[in-house]
Amino acid sequence: MKNVTAHERLEHFLSHHRHQASNQHSAQFGGLTVDSDMVRFVVGATLAIVLLVLAVLRPPMDLLFGRFQFSDALQVIRVRDSEKLVEKLQALSLWDVTPRTEVPPVVFTQFPDDFDRIDSDLKKRVFLHTLLPVAMVANAEVEQERTMLLALLDKLGDCDPDQLFKGSMDARTCGLSQNELYFLQQLGDKYRTARMDELLRRVNVVPVSLMLAQGALESSWGGSRFASEGNNLFGVWTWGTSGMLPQRREPGERHLVAMYDTILDSARSYLLMINRQAAYRDFRTLRERTMDPLQLASGLQRYSEKRDVYVTDLQSFIQQNRLQQYDGCVLSAGLVTREAKPLKLAGLIN
């Protein structure tokens, strides 16, 4: 049965009243004749007030989750070919990246269609430096949630946060506003837990080097069908009705490979999966003690059917490609562009 919201009920009431008013200009109320135009005005004003109150008590979810608040300078870029992608990377100081590079808040929507035809060594560099700012922006969103969560915990004092989740305690007695309580409850829903200690364990970042390694391995450096057709860089599955059918799916299996509008959405989905699924409980426990990507990799046994072999491959991949240098990068507060150096890819595309 479909749930009917308060807004829908009010809309139904207004529609019903307008139908009645079309047949009768006046109406009876308490034995008195009242003007139907005045009734419409009162009901409309009431509806506006109700919607305003709901907006105040429950702010739009975009203000709470999944939207980058680190900087107003976030730029979304779509490129038509690999040559343009390289030009953008150069112009945004993303071509030569060192451990202390300030990475601009920029996200590329997807890899261009000719990306898989680039020379392999060049493709690796382009892949890493394209995914780098995307991974850092996705991490920054989670870090913002964690910062807000810790700030609210500081306000609770002696109040039991788990009782707040259950609705057993009033927000005001714990020093929280209704908006702040709503944020905690929605954060718990998003990360699928009603325990504050577990929420703290789940709302946390993943080392950029580990994200780059898994993105490269799972997408074959951005060349897989799932990456090119669905922007899925991390091999995330879905059991919904929308997705790509794996060519080698075992008989009886029903999963699909998820599709995303952008590679940022893919990175967000990966982080949420790591942070809330039971399969990665060991990873989250390890993360409480260390952010070393080589140690954290051992908590990702269940990411692949290869189990321990996958962990070893992941650790070797991080070391061989010197990915830990990217963990020292910081997200800058804005964009700094410069003139791109000419770099023709015509001879490097197969």
Report the biggest beta sheet as strand number plus sense, adding barrel if it closes: 2 strands, antiparallel
Structural class: mainly alpha
At CATH's second level, what is the architecture of the largest domain? Answer: Orthogonal Bundle
Write down how many β-strands occur, each being a DSSP E stretch of 2 or more residues. Answer: 8
Order of helices and strands: HEEHEHEEHHHHHHEEHHHHE
Task: Indicate the low-confidence ranges by residue numbers.
Answer: 1-7, 16-25, 53-66
Give me the CATH fold name of the largest domain.
Lysozyme
Query: How many distinct helices?
Result: 13
Question: How much helicity do the residues have?
Answer: 40-55%
Mean pLDDT figure: 82
- Strands of the widest sheet, in order across it, are 1-2
Total count of domains: 2
Which of globular, elongated, flat, extended, rod-shaped describes the shape? globular
Q: Class of the largest domain in CATH? A: Mainly Alpha
Q: How far apart are the first and last residues' alpha carbons, in Å?
A: 56 Å
| Amount of beta strand | 5-15%
- Gyration radius (Cα, Å) is 26 Å
